[in-house]
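Customer ticket, subject: "Can you confirm the structure for protein-N(pi)-phosphohistidine--D-fructose phosphotransferase?"

Message body: Hello, I'm evaluating your service for our small team and ran a test protein. I'd like someone to confirm that this is what the system normally returns, since I don't have a reference to compare against.
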Amino acid sequence: MTIKLVAVTACISGVAHTYMAAERLEKLCAQEKWLVKVETQGALGIENSLTADDLAQADVVLLISDILLAESERFEHHRCVQIGINTFLRTPEKALSAVRKAAASPQETHIRVV
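Agent reply: Thanks for trying us out. I re-ran your input and got the following:
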């Protein structure tokens, strides 16, 4: 099953982990043959911003963050998986498993991975 995934990565300092997580996710999605667009919220502000169209076409929204995300209300009515950035970097398979589960769930399903 090809999943269309959109994601946001953000860490406390807004530097290394934000971009490490984005890069790791892009590689994992390539292996899974999933389509992905990643927005980063880092020291340089919001980059590669997700559009309303991106969100409308996505099967799942993956939020990889340890901080409150800017404009988080955008994700309320979508299937959403939330995971801390350190948890994602240590065990990304947990996030992928939750994304698969969310993709098969009703709209507005929110899953928190710990």
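A couple of notes from the result: The first helix runs from residue 16 to 32. The mean pLDDT is 96. Feel free to reply with more questions.
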